[in-house]
Structure formats: structure tokens, C-alpha cells
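Practice problem 4.
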């Protein structure tokens, strides 16, 4: 059953909440904000005598007041959402925080420091308070805080409509519940990944993908730009990376386990110019999202060596791969290769201002290195034990260069093999073992295990699910994931900087299917990385999600309904 918020939910909502803390949250709470805020409480009675079930009437006449350039930027993004999905914008005016206006209803945005009782920098930095009164909404926060408060406000729009009235562009009046939300994130790295190598997605869709992340207060977009099946970023010094490496002759038909293997004969590919990439970075920045680029090395290099065969350990010929899996032709660790990768990374670093540059490091077969006289001589020259230590040598060379540019590397957990580079962060995907080991060594860790946060896995076992790579990661499994392993001490757990889900696209060729595989699992992930674990409740989440799907419907998102009642 879907309730009309103004008539029924106030009694349920505020009757079940503590006046001071949302630890009293129960499944009855259906204020449809995802991720679940830290505190939700009834708004205090104002001198006007407002009642607990009073509402704020948001309409085309509502005025947004800002107090600086950052809040103006946040208001612009908020207006873009309203215009895209509801067909109107609100007037924006700069005003001092104390200034009173005669407008019928006002949304006041205030950039200010919000203190929290959680002693972490990201919690203080991104905290916000959302106060909804009868005549005025105030959103106060610092850094991303005001923006996050606006996302919570957007998510209240479905609750403002009667149960039988769908949200649409004809909807221009919203009755929002009076309440106070006090909120801040649990983790500093709240990430979502997109592979554009196996299948390429337009710049406009990448922006739409970023919009989904922003709606749920995610702050990292991990952009997987290179792999065996395509090199997707323009590098001006090496034009063949895109003229050759961005296109394959054909693509696998069906699942890679099917026999006989079949391919189409359609030339497939595409790439982003550096101007495209900068545009995406700026678009994400305005939504308080950092774009972390990934340039794969030393493995998953087929597209690169197809363009520049001299970078491999054997003479070739090579081609951009049309199949899925792990392939043997990897970068050869010679000086020519390091100079090439440094030049590539110099251009990448100039485009992406992120603290971390992802250098891959996963699934690097050592066969070609074992066969190479050069590689075997290098192992002896450097006093290395084996090819695993040769990979560590490779990664440490790259790290030294990246550090010289004021950045740090992050890589998949294979970079632990042969010894972890001194300043590297680890993204743990093969379970949590690598992340635990890295945390014990006091390295930053992002948890991203296949078993719980790989969104290319099936999310339902019902008939008719679209083809996926395999595995099974349903909505409830994502929701119940806990990124802090019990094997770590509290001090070691401090090195777990967050978690991330990955969306590999071997079997995801269209934007519609990306949306289907992403949502609503992204909603569950958002609560994993934002909401205090003691306040999570799957039944309550499903109640909020059911109402939240009204907003997804208004946005025309092709989300999966497999887990919904």
C-alpha cells in the first residue's frame, strides 16, 4: 500500500521517531530519503503555531536564496533536475542568511560548517541540516552538504503526492512535510564504477550516470577507460591509441562459455576526446563527485599493444579483442614502455584532478614475461625472485612517477603480489582478503568484493532476466554488506576508506541495460556507505524504496523491479 503523505504518514513517521536521534528508526518510518539519514525528527513548533502535520508548499513561485557561489551552483543543479523531470525552474536570488523576504515560500541555502558527533573529516566536511517549516526550508552545510540536502529534498517529492497521482511534468505543486534532517556520511569513499571499454557509452549517458550517483550522495565515479576490448581516451602524443585501439573488428555473440564461439562482423568502438573528458569532470564536480580514471597496466593491454606493438614482449601482430576474458599480451617492462606510460599518465593527470589515479594491476598473465629473454634478464638485474616481483617492480616505477605529479595510485588487489608499492591504495575485489592484508600494512583500502557489489552479476533468479556474466548479487545481499571486516582491529579498520560497486559491461551494451543492472542496487549500496550500520533496516529500506520508485518512474529510469513486491 502507498500512503498519501500529508494525510497518514505524519502520524506514522513522527510517532515513531525520537526527538533527538534516529536510532529509534523502525520499519514504520517511510520518509523516502535514500540513503537513510542519521537523524530525522519532527520540526519544532514555530510562533505561527504550525502543527506536526503541517506542510511546506513548493511551487513555481518558491524562491531559492543563496549566500555564495557554491550554493548558487548547487541551486543551478537542483533547478536542472526540476526542469528536466517536472518542467519548471525556481527563481534564484542571493541574500544574506538573516535577510527576510516577503515571498510566499523560500528555500534558503546556507554554506556553513556543521559539527557532528562523528570524529571523521568527511563527516564534518559533508554534513548538512535540512529544516522544513511551513514558509521556509533551510539547508545548511559545508562543501557538499548543501548539495546533499537538496538531494534529500528532491527525494521527498514523491511523498508529496496522493497515492493515486503519478509524478509528471504537469506536477508543479508539492506539499512537503515539516521536519528536521541532520545527516552526514559514514565513509569518505562512496564509489560507483562504469566500464566503457567492453561497451562504449556516449558522453551524454555518462553524465546521466553521474546524475544517478549524485541523487544518492555517492562521491566517486570510477571511469574504466582502457582494456583489451578498447582504448577510450584520446592521448594526443599517441593518436593510434584511439585511431587503432578504440575499435575492434567484431564482438562476441552470446555468452563466452558457449561453444562454438561466435562473433559478429560489425566494427565497434568509440572514444572520448580530452575535451569530452574535461566536460565530464566538470559536470561531476558540480555534483560533488570526483572522477577517478583507470588506465589498465600491465595487463589488459591488448588495445594498446595493437596500436603500438613495440610495447609488448613479442613482435605480434596484435588486435583489439572482441571476446571477454584474460589475454596474454601485456605491457613489457622495458624503458620504452615506461616512457610511453608516463607520457600517457601525464596527459591523464592534466585532465583529471583526482587525488587517486587507478592503474589497474589485475589479471596480468606472466606467460609472456616468462618467455621473454629481456624480462628474465631484468629479473636477475633487479634481484627479483620471480615474475610476481617483476609486476611489483613495474607498479612501483609507475607509482614513483604518479607521486612526482602530486597524485597517488590505487589498484586492484593483485598489486599486493610481489610487494605493495609504498604509497598505494588497494581496491579489494577478489573478496576481502587483499583489503584486509593492505589495511594491516596501513594502506588505504576500498572494499569492492565480487560476492556482494558486482552489479554485472544477476540480481534475480526469476525467468526472463537479461544475460549476465554469472553470479548472483540480489538487492538484499548488497544492502546487508558490511565493509569493515571483523578480522581487523578498530585501528586497522580506519584504513578502510569506503566501498564501491563495479559495473563491468561485457554483457551490457545499451544505456537501458546499464540502468536495469544499476538500479535499485545503487540505492542499497548508498545506505552501505552512508548510513550508520546500527540504523539500517532492510524492511524499512524496502518501504522507502517502494515510494521512491515514483521518482524513478518520473525520471523514466529503466530500473529492475525483480526485488519489488
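Answer key:
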Amino acid at each position: 500500500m502507498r500512503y498519501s503523505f500529508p494525510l497518514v504518514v505524519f502520524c506514522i513517521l513522527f510517532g515513531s521517531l525520537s526527538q533527538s536521534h534516529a536510532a529509534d528508526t523502525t520499519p514504520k518510518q517511510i520518509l523516502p530519503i535514500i540513503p537513510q539519514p542519521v537523524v530525522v525528527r519532527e520540526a519544532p513548533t514555530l510562533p505561527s503555531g504550525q502543527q506536526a502535520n503541517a506542510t511546506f508548499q513548493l511551487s513555481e513561485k518558491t524562491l531559492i536564496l543563496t549566500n555564495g557561489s557554491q550554493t548558487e551552483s548547487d541551486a543551478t543543479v537542483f533547478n536542472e533536475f526540476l526542469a528536466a523531470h517536472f518542467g519548471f525552474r525556481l527563481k534564484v536570488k542571493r541574500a544574506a542568511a538573516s535577510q527576510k523576504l516577503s515571498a510566499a515560500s523560500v528555500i534558503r541555502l546556507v554554506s556553513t560548517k556543521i559539527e557532528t558527533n562523528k570524529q571523521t573529516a568527511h563527516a564534518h566536511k559533508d554534513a548538512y541540516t535540512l529544516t522544513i517549516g511551513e514558509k521556509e526550508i533551510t539547508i545548511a552545510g559545508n562543501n557538499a552538504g548543501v548539495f546533499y540536502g537538496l538531494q534529500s529534498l528532491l527525494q521527498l517529492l514523491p511523498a508529496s503526492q496522493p497515492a493515486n497521482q503519478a509524478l509528471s511534468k504537469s506536477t508543479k505543486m508539492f506539499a512537503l512535510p515539516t521536519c528536521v534532517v541532520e545527516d552526514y556520511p559514514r565513509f569518505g569513499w562512496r564509489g560507483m564504477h562504469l566500464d566503457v571499454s567492453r561497451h562504449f557509452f556516449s558522453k551524454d549517458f555518462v553524465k546521466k550516470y553521474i546524475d544517478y550517483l549524485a541523487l544518492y550522495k555517492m562521491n566517486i565515479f570510477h571511469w574504466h577507460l582502457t582494456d583489451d576490448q578498447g582504448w577510450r581516451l584520446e592521448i594526443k602524443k599517441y593518436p593510434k591509441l584511439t585511431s587503432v585501439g578504440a575499435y575492434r573488428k567484431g564482438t562476441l555473440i552470446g555468452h563466452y562459455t558457449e561453444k562454438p564461439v561466435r562473433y559478429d562482423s560489425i566494427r565497434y568502438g568509440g572514444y572520448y576526446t580530452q575535451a569530452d573528458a574535461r566536460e565530464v569532470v566538470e559536470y561531476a564536480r558540480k555534483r560533488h563527485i570526483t572522477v577517478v580514471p583507470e588506465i589498465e597496466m600491465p595487463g589488459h593491454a591488448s588495445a594498446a599493444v595493437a596500436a603500438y606493438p613495440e610495447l609488448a614482449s613479442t613482435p605480434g601482430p596484435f588486435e583489439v579483442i572482441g571476446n571477454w576474458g584474460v589475454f596474454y599480451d601485456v605491457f613489457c617492462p622495458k624503458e620504452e614502455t615506461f616512457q610511453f606510460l608516463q607520457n600517457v599518465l601525464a596527459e591523464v593527470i592534466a585532465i583529471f584532478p583526482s587525488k587517486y589515479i587507478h592503474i589497474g594491476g589485475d589479471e596480468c598473465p606472466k606467460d609472456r614475461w616468462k618467455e621473454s629473454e629481456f624480462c628474465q634478464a631484468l629479473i636477475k638485474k633487479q634481484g627479483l625472485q620471480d615474475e610476481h616481483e617483476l609486476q611489483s617492480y613495474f607498479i612501483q616505477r609507475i607509482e614513483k612517477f604518479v607521486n612526482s605529479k602530486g597524485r597517488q595510485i590505487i589498484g586492484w588487489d593483485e598489486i599486493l603480489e610481489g610487494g605493495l608499492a609504498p604509497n598505494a591504495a588497494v581496491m579489494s575485489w577478489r573478496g576481502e582478503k587483499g583489503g584486509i592484508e593492505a589495511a594491516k600494512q596501513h594502506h588505504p583500502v576500498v572494499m569492492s568484493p565480487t560476492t556482494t557489489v558486482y552489479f554485472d552479476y544477476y540480481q534475480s533468479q526469476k525467468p526472463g532476466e537479461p544475460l549476465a556474466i554469472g553470479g548472483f548479487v540480489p538487492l538484499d545481499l548488497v544492502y546487508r554488506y558490511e565493509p569493515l571486516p571483523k578480522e581487523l582491529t578498530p585501528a586497522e579498520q580506519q584504513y578502510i576508506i569506503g566501498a564501491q560497486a563495479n559495473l563491468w559491461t561485457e554483457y551490457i551494451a545499451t544505456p537501458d541495460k546499464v540502468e536495469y543492472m544499476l538500479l535499485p542496487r545503487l540505492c542499497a549500496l548508498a545506505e552501505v556507505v552512508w548510513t550508520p550500520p546500527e540504523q539500517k533496516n532492510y524492511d524499512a529500506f524496502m518501504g522507502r524504496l517502494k515510494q521512491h520508485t515514483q521518482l524513478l518512474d518520473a525520471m523514466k529510469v529503466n530500473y529492475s523491479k525483480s526485488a519489488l513486491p
